[in-house]
User: Fold this.
Amino acid sequence: MNYVFKMQNVTSHLVDNCVKSTPAGEAWQCFWAEFSLPLTKSPVFVINSLYDAWQMGNIFMTQAPAWKECAGKLDSCTSSEISVTNSIFQKRMLDRVLTQLQPKDGAFLFSCWSHCQSYGPGGFDGIKINGVSVAKALGDWYYGRASHNVYVDCTLNQSSPHECNSSCSA
Assistant:
């Protein structure tokens, strides 16, 4: 992530309190929600996939090159690779992000094998968790129309097809 942090030159766009609280040369950590959320004063609504295809191919693959086929195409993954993927990606998001949310915050964490899918064609209205779209969840949170503002999707299936949310491929 340090490379991405430097390449995108995002220092001036990070949570100021986070940058000030990290050791010299470690400000890149503030690029991760788990480090910046506890220091964010404004209410936040996290929209993210529990399984980030870009991270799988560009971060995880550097440590596990034998997973090249799985990183490239979800249905090429073995059940043991899916088990590890579930624990790495979903567990990280749930353990490190959800635990940092404040009562004023919200989240929509979907299970699509993607990177930025919610912003593509049909994503904002098309991806759903229990019948609720990203757009509806965000609007309900922003306008205070719902008491429940955290949506967490399913876990990838051990056997193919691994995709557990049919709206991901819509």
The chain has eight helices and five strands.
